[in-house]
Amino acid sequence: MFSLSFVPPLILTFTYEESGREIFLYSFIFFFILGGSIWAATRQQNLPLNISDGFIITTLFWVVLAFAGSIPFYFFGLSVSDAIFESVSGITTTGATTIVGLDSLPKSILLYRQLLQWIGGMGLIVLAVAVMPALGIGGGQLYKMELPGSHGNQKLTPKITDSAKALWKIYVGLTFICAMLYFLSGMTLFDSIAHSLSTVAGGGFSTHDESIGFFNSAIIETVCIIFMLLSAASFAVHYVAIFGGKPLKYFYDSEFRFFLSVVLLIILLSLIVHILSNSYADVFSAISSSIFHTVSIVTTSGFTTENFSLWPGFLPYLLLVGAFMGACSQSVGGGIKAWRVLIMVNQAYKEILKTIHPNAVLTSKIGTKVIDAKIAEKVWGFFSIYVFIFMFLLMAMLGTGLSFETAFSAVGA
């Protein structure tokens, strides 16, 4: 399946008469034969899959595809380290890049970068869940690992393959609608397709060095904001809203409401600081910039229209703290996930009440659901490990001579 990612760039090399067609052609042939051989050799096997196998397979998918994806970058002139960095950044939808001068690159390699993010966005693990049963391997553990949120123990459909297909339909549908709206808003056909791939993937790759700011269009920014928010929402909620015929599910979902509340709070604080510091010539510019960059950074998408690190006061750090929380569970966004933060906030509030009322019998709830004590323990355990790794990497980055802001944003990405 991964070999198909080389086909659209290959077609563009002929369409725009660009060089590099051999790179994509040979890469397609090699990985198609390799993948086909593995499939043929294993399709008759029906092996049980335990949790440890699920972890290994999940990790190998990310590592192998990241290294495989680096090959075109290397043959286009990047060093080995830069090629691997670009591929890993794409597959993991991190959005960081070592490439300067995107506007002058061939369209084929630009589209390839966007496709890497699109594949990595939501599809990599769900694709594994869909493909594994075809290879005779169960995928329940993988499904549970990648969908850990409030719907994580509930299958969307009786069969995992049907769930994966339904999620892919939503993913492809969002991409198509996003591309169409980008095009109608003034983007070229190529830019609209390319940016829809990275927007829905929550990755932030662009075909221009100035990112979304290149277009200087409020309409395009609005479209981008809408789809960054949609991509940050749980795809299980999307499924219930679309296939379950319950469009109001978005408003009833506790996690999504909490996520939007955090986004709105950061927007409000940013706007107040901008107005008080006269950062912009007019209020409209302050509003549009506050909304766009808050949504972009908190959802971990990473699109920009300006250098937000130059914002006054504590605002750049506030955005990075928002990104630390990240998007909703079962979405393409990064971060700790909003549902974990919601559980920790709820648990902390309960402990405060216990201190004030020692004899009170209190239960932690999110909406109407009671939070099991074991779930809360796992969330706090995950948070502890997350913070430890974050601080370790932050110290390592600071040791290289980077500023605190640069190091924090690099680790947070």
From TrEMBL:
Predominant place of localization: membrane
Record's keyword annotation contains Ion transport: yes
Positions of transmembrane segments: 23-42, 54-76, 115-137, 166-184, 218-244, 256-276, 314-336, 379-398
Domain of life: Bacteria
Keywords: Cell membrane, Ion transport, Membrane, Transmembrane, Transmembrane helix, Transport
Membrane topology: Multi-pass membrane protein
Family of this protein: Belongs to the TrkH potassium transport family.
Name of protein: Potassium transporter
